[in-house]
Amino acid sequence: MGSIAAIQYEGSMSDAFDIKSGVKQGCVLAPTLFSIFFSLLLKHAFGKSTEGVYMHTRSDGNLYNIVRLRAKTKIRKTTIRDMLFADDAAVTSHRVQDLQRLMDRFSQPCEDFGLTISLKQTNVLGQDVNTPPVITIDNYQLEVVHEFSYLGSTIPDNLSLDTELDKRIGKAATTLGRLTSHV
Q1: Is 3 a member of any domain?
Q2: Residue 18 lies in a domain
Q3: Is residue 106 within 8 Å of residue 115, measured between CB atoms?
Q4: Residues 51 and 115 in one domain
Q5: Residue 163: domain span
Q6: Each residue's pLDDT tens digit, 14-72
Q7: Cα gap 37→110, rounded to integer Å
Q8: What phi and psi values does residue 108 have, to the nearest 5 degrees?
Q9: pTM of the predicted model, to two decimals?
Q10: Residue 19: inside a domain, yes or no?
Q11: What element of type H or E holds 91?
Q12: Dihedral sign, CA of 115, 120, 124, 130?
């Protein structure tokens, strides 16, 4: 890499050493390399796993006609178990025991690949459940939350979109107000 570094700790400086791997901070290759790295981690973690949320799709007609999804043919079943953005991940499943299995499968490869899961920032959201789900990573019980923010959207445990719609309408009204004051 052509870089040399030293570590300063409690007023002492280590000897200089060559940096032999990685990319410099801000390098345009960093996001792509991390995506490749994380894709390999996920493939290693989930392999042929069948747990996740199933979504039925059909792309040969009216997209919003839900009756067409009841057909026996031309339906595609897709499993969604993870949603990724930068270095954030959301893991999904229909059942608590499946989610625990996914977290077990995810946490070990993270450790093997040198990544640390921030347990304090990792939450569980159960939707339409009577008892809060208990999910653990290495015997640490994850916090159960009543709403979850992901990529700027708020997902509540009661399946209501009211709060999210109110927030978006408020943002749109603010933006419209700014536009009209400048015209």
Answers
A1: no
A2: no
A3: no
A4: yes
A5: 148-182
A6: 999 988 888 888 889 988 998 899 999 999 999 888 899 988 888 777 767 778 877 77
A7: 11
A8: -65, -50
A9: 0.73
A10: no
A11: strand 88-91
A12: positive
